[in-house]
Amino acid sequence: MRFFGTMEINNKGNLQIGGCDSINLTKEFGTPLYVVDEELVRGNCRTFKNNFSLEGIETEVIYASKAFLNLAVCKLISEEGLSLDVVSGGELYTALKAEFPVNKIYMHGNNKTANELIMAIQAGIGRIVVDNKQELELLEYLCEELDKEIDVLLRVNPGIDAHTHEYIQTSKNDSKFGVSIFSDDICCLLEKFQISRRINLKGFHCHIGSQIFEEKSFYQGISVMLEFLDRVKKECDFITEELNLGGGFGVYYSKVDTPIDLKKCLKNMLLLVKEKTMEMRLTIPKVMIEPGRSITANAGTTLYEVGGTKNTYGGKNYIFVDGGMTDNPRTALYGAKYEAIVANKMKLENKAMYTIAGKCCESGDILVKDIVLPEVERNDVLAVLSTGAYNYSMASNYNRIPRPAVVFVKDGQARLTVKRETYEDILRNDLLI
Ligand SMILES: Cc1ncc(COP(=O)(O)O)c(C=O)c1O
Ligand SMILES: N[C@@H](CCCC[NH3+])C(=O)O
């Protein structure tokens, strides 16, 4: 088990995060509760900003907001000087409402609707990442209608087979994202951009997948992309000004995960860009990355109240908590593995093997399988660690369960950043006819 950021055990034997006793947090804000270690999120932003830098290369770190977004997150990311990647009208709307600097917003998506594109064009966001030819045509039409110009990147697929869960691979040849760098008509497509009066193609975007632990996949991505840049220069007469390499840096959730040395990898990525561009006599493009999970995952902890335990006839020892797949669908969806602790019994010895199950009417509603913990009883507080990415952002109202509140903790202060949903919120859009 690993502790992250400001997590510690206080003298009451309770888990403490950001100087706040987790048990007090549950009393003040209820359970389930997403707790975010603000200092750790800021520290992670700085690790990326400080280490993704190299003399002679312009760089940009863009936070992939799909990992975790709310107004307070936007504000924090903006304060730390990162840019923001959004993939939907909803994410863009959040960023605009938070007054995130518009020129630092990137919009992705394999099927952006006309309304989403209009919203992005009218707001004047920094870059739209065009996924395909049809989208280019739609964008051209919309820009004409709105009498606007827009800077874009083209999402390409470098065909890298990064080793991760098949659902979060994004760059195999059959991926739904982007245009293959191997497609024969790439020059035709680039020509469409070149003749456009409204759309200004600055370069390319790729993303090889998520939760990647093999450093070499990132280097392979760079090599393949630079060969592509060389090819489009020679064959299509296109000079690439910007190269966005996406995110995907893996994090520790449990002992099966072995994260790479991030600082070293970030430096090596840029060194490789420099070396290869010199070798190929290419102009060095501006290089961007888009980390999501690695900024927020380890900074999040979900606190649950234990409703009871059950020893089944088949011999399974369940702990029932008051949340589950509605606030963290990753175990059910990907077989993700998490670590958990009993937040009010941090000094007690582990006693028994448990499976932590949620309250949904679904057998697959499991948060953690086979974990050894101190003896657990009703009203204990269970903490599942590293839930800061793709938990709140993927939460649902299945079984009409309200989504939990989100609290930021720092220096002994707790700040509510998202209120707990109420039953009224659940009914908000229902109409009785
Ligand atoms: C285009 C793009 N950029 C960035 C990310 C962020 O990935 P991660 O959270 O693994 O860093 C993703 C998600 O996989 C993505 O699809
Ligand atoms: N939702 C995935 C990551 C998706 C990455 C987005 N392309 C996860 O929880 O691991």
UniProtKB/TrEMBL annotation:
Molecular function GO labels? diaminopimelate decarboxylase activity; pyridoxal phosphate binding
The record's top EC class is lyase
One Pfam family hit: Orn_Arg_deC_N
Its needed co-factors are: pyridoxal 5'-phosphate
Record keywords: Amino-acid biosynthesis, Decarboxylase, Lyase, Lysine biosynthesis, Pyridoxal phosphate
What pathway does this protein act in? Answer: Amino-acid biosynthesis; L-lysine biosynthesis via DAP pathway; L-lysine from DL-2,6-diaminopimelate: step 1/1
Residue positions of the PTM N6-(pyridoxal phosphate)lysine? K66
* Positions contributing to pyridoxal 5'-phosphate binding: G248, E290, P291, G292, R293, Y390
Stated EC number for the protein is: 4.1.1.20
Gene3D superfamilies this protein is in? Answer: Alanine racemase, Lyase, Ornithine Decarboxylase, Chain A, domain 1
Q: Which residues participate directly in catalysis?
A: C361
Q: What GO biological process term is on the record, naming one?
A: lysine biosynthetic process via diaminopimelate
Q: What does this protein do?
A: Specifically catalyzes the decarboxylation of meso-diaminopimelate (meso-DAP) to L-lysine.
Of which family is this protein a member?
Belongs to the Orn/Lys/Arg decarboxylase class-II family. LysA subfamily.
According to UniProt, the name of this protein is Diaminopimelate decarboxylase
This protein's encoding gene: lysA
